[in-house]
Each structure stands twice: as C-alpha cells, then as structure tokens.
Amino acid sequence: MNKNELLALIEKKRSELIQVAMSSGLNSTDAIKYSQELDALLNEYNRTFLKKA
Fold this sequence. Notes:
The protein has 2 helices and no strands. By secondary structure, the protein is an all-alpha fold. It starts with a helix and ends with a helix.
C-alpha cells in the first residue's frame, strides 16, 4: 500500500469515527472499534513512513 492510499484510509476511518461518536457517543462499542481501527492505521503509517533515522 502506498502512502496516499494509506492516508486516504486514515481519513475515511477518522470520518467514520466522528460520525459514530456523534450518533452513539465516544464510549459506544462502535466508536471504540473505529478508534482502534484508526489507531492501527496510524501505527502502520508511522512504522512505514516515519521511520526513525
């Protein structure tokens, strides 16, 4: 997966999280699931594209 594809997935997941959190609350099961998925995508981005020198 290239950088732009991963960034697009991150933005999509962030948008989904915001929508779920607004409708169900931040502590809802769905919001937590989306938050964890977003965390995984952000961690992948950091590992892949922001490696420490």
